[in-house]
Each structure stands twice: as C-alpha cells, then as structure tokens.
C-alpha cells in the first residue's frame, strides 16, 4: 500500500530512527509506534477544535502523565487508558509499556553538551491521604517521579508549591499552570519537558528581514523572516501538495517543517499518521516566532475513548486502595520559541513519493506544521501548527 510523502516522512523516521539490530531489543523501541500514533491522533482532535489558532503541545508529556495514572488503574479504566495511549495489551504488556517509558526517559535525560533536554515527573500527594505503596514505588522506579506531600486544604499554598516547581523545571517559561485547586484533591500528577536546542547550522541575524506572512486569503502580517542559503534535507509530495524541510539541531534532535500549498492545510493535517528524501541547496525563508497554548484535556481525551477515568465509574483503586477516586481535571500547557540560533520549548503534562527538482527558494510564509523529533529514540517531543506567527 502506498502512502504519501508528507504522511510518511515523519513516520518513517520514527520507524527507522537510529535503531541498529541490537537497538531493536531495547525497551523503548516497543513503545515508539504507540507514542507516535497517540501524538498524531491527539493532534487531529486539537486541530479540529482550534482550526484558526496556533497549536503547540508535547505528546510525550501527556502520554507519560497518563501512563503514570495507569499504574493505579484497574479493569476498564486501565484498558481504556492503555488503548487510548496506543497500546494493545495483547501485543504489549503493561510491564513492557512501563519499562519502555523508563528506558525512554532515561535516554532523553542523558547529559548532552550540545542540547539541554529535561523531562521529569512529580506526584503532589495529599498529606492527609495514604497512597498505595506499590503505586508510589512504581512511579518512582519507572518514571523517576518526585513524590511531594502537599497540603491541599490550603489551595493557595498548594498552587504556589506546584506552580513554583513547574516554573523552576521549565526555566521560568511556564507559570500559573495550576489554578482553582480542589481542597479535596488526592493527588496532582505533573509531567514537564524543557528543551533548549541550537541549530546545527544557525541563521545569521544580519540576514533576518521583515517579510509577509499570509495567514489566509484576507490577512497578511509582517514578520521577522530568517533567511539562509544552504543544503537541507527536503521532501515533496505532489499528491498532498506539501513540502517538508528538515532542520537538524546540534545533538540528536531535528525539526521538520511541513508547508502545505496554499489552501491545503486541512488535507495535509488529515493525512498525518505515524518519502523519499534528498539533500539539495535551497534558499530557505522561515519566520522567527514564539507561540504558546493551554489545553483542558478532558474533552480531547474523551474523543480518544479515554472516558471512564473522568467519571464516578473510574477504578483507580491501585492509587488509594479504595474505588472512590476519579480525575477531575487534566491540563496541558506548552511554549515554543524559534529563533536564529535555535529553539526553546517547554511543556507540562506519516503513497509512495518521488523526488523532484526543489525550487531555488522555499518560503515558509503561510500556515505550516512543525514536528520536533528526538531521532536516537524516535520520539516526537513537540507538535505545532503556526497559523499566525504574531500571535503568541
């Protein structure tokens, strides 16, 4: 069966990654496809709800938080969480899923002088409620979660504690994530991811100039346009009418910029799932931009058939030892800044193709998608859509 280039460019990278024959036995390889499926399915739901807005989120942040939650889930609640995450228990056991996340988080957090990438988890637990020891032990073992007793009876103090933790872990880029805490809360699960990366071949600030960005047929805005004449790995799909340009960072991370032809954004978005490429000299024009997003996840996750955990039928007895527990709130906040030297990002919670002659100039001057991938582990770190670079 043939698939289009824009559809497969990213997914082929994820399927191949840098996996040698020996790498294929690593625990994290077993969760690559599930994580990729979750990432693109979640994007589809976000895009359907926010068609005219910028989008930025970290699928890994969301899936890691849900995976921690699944440690304490039982029965239908558990099966919904795992299926929603993209895992079929007949193919991948619970143990393999958690071992996969454990190895993945370990690999992503390895010290690297070329890129700053920090991913972690925390459980803020009600200091008046005793939680099941196995749940806490598994959260610490598989997800290296910090377990922090919290006084939820004083919501203002609890919010300050949690938000201060997130702000510190994301270098001040995310604050006031948690608001309106319930004094009866039993636990808050936090996953954070922070990345500062530098282009392998940075743009020259002196070549940045004001340019037009065509938001839609009626709207044009002026943006700082970064320009570079260099060799880039590029892709083209004449069926879906889109181009892909890969920009590598120093380290093991790359950004894929997917530029649909004018009016083809929806068509390309619908084709995103988990091409041929070639290296060619082009003149690239890319806007400098900063975007952020804040999502209430309940409705998005319900559309992905993760429903029971938000209802009175939820079985999270593996957390407290009692059945009377449900998730009342799920939020995700993300930030992305792309500039001449590289990218700063933070978040808490892919028909057969044929090479063609690349035009001498690729102008990313209308709405586009951006997917940031850690290639060594084949992991999608961030997915974004820039509808208007001037809207933060």
Automatic annotation (TrEMBL):
Chaperone recorded as keyword: no
SMART domains listed in its UniProt record: SERPIN
Ranges of residues in domain Serpin: 40-389
GO CC terms of this entry: extracellular space
GO molecular function, one term: serine-type endopeptidase inhibitor activity
Sorted UniProt keywords: Glycoprotein, Protease inhibitor, Serine protease inhibitor, Signal
Coiled coil ranges: none
The UniProt record lists the keyword Methyltransferase: no
Recorded family membership: Belongs to the serpin family.
Designated name of the protein: Kallistatin-like
Gene assigned in the entry: LOC114584892
């Amino acid at each position: 069966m043939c698939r289009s280039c824009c559809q497969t460019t990213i997914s082929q990278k994820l399927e191949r990654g840098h996996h040698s024959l020996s790498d294929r036995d690593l625990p994290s390889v077993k969760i690559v496809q599930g994580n990729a499926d979750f990432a693109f399915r979640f994007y589809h739901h976000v895009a359907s709800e926010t068609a005219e807005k910028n989008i930025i989120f970290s699928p890994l942040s969301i899936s890691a938080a849900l995976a921690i939650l699944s440690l304490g889930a039982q029965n239908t609640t558990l099966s919904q969480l795992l299926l929603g995450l993209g895992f079929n228990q007949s193919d991948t056991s619970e143990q393999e899923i958690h071992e996969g996340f454990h190895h993945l988080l370990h690999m992503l957090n390895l010290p690297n002088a070329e890129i700053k990438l920090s991913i972690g988890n925390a459980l803020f637990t009600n200091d008046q409620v005793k939680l099941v020891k196995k749940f806490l032990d598994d959260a610490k073992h598989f997800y290296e979660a910090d377990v922090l007793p919290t006084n939820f009876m004083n919501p203002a103090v609890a919010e300050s504690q949690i938000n201060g933790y997130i702000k510190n872990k994301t270098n001040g880029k995310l604050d006031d994530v948690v608001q309106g805490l319930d004094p009866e809360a039993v636990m808050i699960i936090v996953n954070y991811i922070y990345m500062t990366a530098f282009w392998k071949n940075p743009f020259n600030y002196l070549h940045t100039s004001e340019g037009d960005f065509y938001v839609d047929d009626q709207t044009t805005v002026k943006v700082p346009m970064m320009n570079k004449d260099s060799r880039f790995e590029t892709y083209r799909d004449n069926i879906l009418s889109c181009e892909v340009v890969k920009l590598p960072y120093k380290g093991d991370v790359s950004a894929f910029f997917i530029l649909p032809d004018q009016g083809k954004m929806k068509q390309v978005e619908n084709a995103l799932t988990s091409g041929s490429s070639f290296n060619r000299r082009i003149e690239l024009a890319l806007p400098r931009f900063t975007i952020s997003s804040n999502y209430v996840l309940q409705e998005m996750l319900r559309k992905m058939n993760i429903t029971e955990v938000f209802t009175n039928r939820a079985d999270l007895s593996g957390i407290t030892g009692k059945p009377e527990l449900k998730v009342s709130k799920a939020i995700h906040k993300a930030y992305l800044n792309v500039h001449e030297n590289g990218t700063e990002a933070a978040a808490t919670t892919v028909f057969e193709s044929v090479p063609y002659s690349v035009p001498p100039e690729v102008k990313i001057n209308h709405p586009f998608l951006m997917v940031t991938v850690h290639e060594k582990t084949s992991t999608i770190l961030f997915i974004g859509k820039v509808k208007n670079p001037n809207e933060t």
